[in-house]
Each structure stands twice: as C-alpha cells, then as structure tokens.
Amino acid sequence: MTAVQESGQARIGRERRPRRVDRWFDPRGLAPGQLAFVLHRITGLGLVFYLFLHLGVLSLLARGPEAWDRFIAVAKTSPVLALDVVLIFGLLFHGLNGLRLTLVSLNLGVRKQAALFWGATVLAAAGTAVAGWMIFRMGG
Amino acid sequence: MTMSERRARSKGGQAFWWQVISGVLLVVLATIHMVANHFVVPGGLRTYADVVSYIGTPAIFVLETLFLVVVTSHALLGVRAIILDLSPSDRAARRLDRFLVLLGLAAIVYATTLMIRVGW
C-alpha cells in the first residue's frame, strides 16, 4: 500500500470492505506505509484513552489542594513516570508521522515516504530518550 | 452518485482536512502544553497553587482552551475515521456522528468549566 492510497483510504474509508483490526498487531510482511498506518492508529487510540483519563484526573482539582497534591505525589512514583515515557513516545511518533502524512497528502515527498517514516520513528525514539531522562531527573 | 453519497463524501473530505489542520496545530499547541506544564516546572508537575496561578493568567486560559478544543476534535475525528473503516451501516454512522459530537461538546464544556472554577 502506498502512502497516497493510505491517505485516500482515510478519506473515503466507508466505501471499502471492513478492515480486520486484529491484523494491526501482526507486523509480518508489512511495508513501511502499512506499518506507519497501523502504528499511527494504535498510538492515536492510546492518546485518545489518555486524553479522557487526563480530563478525569483533572477533576481532582475541583476537590481542593489536598486531593491534587496527593495525586502529584503518586504521579512522581517510578511506575507512573515510566508510563509518562511511553506517553511521550506515543505523542512524538503520532505527531511526527502525522506531519509525514500531511506532506504525502499534499503530494510532497511521496517517493520518500518510507524514509520519512523511518526518520520520524528515529526522531521519536531519540526525543523519548531525552524526555525520559528529563522526566526521571526532575520527577524521581 | 446519489445526493446522500455526495454529501457523505463532502463531509468526509471536510473531516479529513480538519484532521490535517488540527494535527498541524496540535504539534505547536501540545509542545507548548507539555513544556509549560512539565518540562520547565520544578519537580515536573505543578502543585495546586501553581495550577491556580497558571490557569488564572488570561493568555494561558485562552491557549489551554484552544488546545482543549483542537485536541478533542482531532481525537474524536480520529476515532470516527477508525470506526468508519469498519463499514458500519448509514444509520449507525449517523448515530456515531451524533454521539461523538455530544461527547466532544461535553468534554469541552466540562474542562472549560473546571478551568474557570479553579483559576478564576
């Protein structure tokens, strides 16, 4: 599947047969464009889950300083900080791959879309390593 | 092509382009949000007093509200695109649209009210 087909499918997805979601988790034989499509959707769903979780947690602010500051103490424990690092990778990958998709949708860099995907992945991994180091240094 | 098919295709096109525009906006807004709330804050997270002072700043309130609207619409349009790829019936697709609009509005009203209550 090329990137142009990928973005075209996003536009008129309802005209196609249902996609088997379980195949998202089987990376065997996937071309970079397909892998990017699958990872973009998995990170997107993870970020939607996080968005609503985050909005729910913010309700603690309405309960006053004790409730919020108690939550902050939990949020600074190592397991939660590790989840923050996973979140950062999701944000960086989804954002950078989203920019790649935007370029391809505008017919820019279509022939280099595979290289752009690997570039976005490497940048996301590097950004996550730096952010992870900062998160544990500040919060740990 | 029937009228309803044409309307659905035009709606899908608008959703696609808003997804692209909001995505580009989010690269900027999410970066500002993450840096301002985590990476320049001593300890990495704001205390209650810090949050009140941060949200109480008018420019920050506007920026965070804009971020909220853009991120919520981008997220729910993404969910819509994934569900539509599973080829639901037209009736189910219309119900899905209504549900996602209501969910998005509820999330935006809830979080904006919370910011006003806490910061003002």
Write structural notes for this entry.
The complex is a heterodimer of chains A (140) and B (120). Chain A has 140 residues and is mainly alpha-helical. Chain A has helices at residues 3-11, 32-58, 65-75, 78-105, 113-139. Helices cover 73% and strands 0% of the residues of chain A. In chain A, helix 2 (32-58) packs across helix 4. Chain B is 85% helix and 0% strand. Chain B has four helices and no strands. In chain B, helix 2 (48-55) packs across helix 4. The radius of gyration of chain B is 18 Å and the shape is elongated. The relative contact order of chain B is 0.12.
Short description:
Chain A has helices at residues 3-11, 32-58, 65-75, 78-105, 113-139. With 140 residues, chain A is mainly alpha-helical.
CATH superfamily of chain A: Fumarate reductase/succinate dehydrogenase, transmembrane subunit
H-E string of chain B: HHHH
Q: Biggest interface pair, residues each?
A: A-B, 42 and 43 residues
The percent range for helix content of chain A is over 70%
Low-confidence stretches of chain B: none
How does the helix and strand content of chain A classify structurally?
mainly alpha
Beginning-to-end CA distance, first to last residue of chain B: 53 Å
SS summary, helix count of chain B: 4
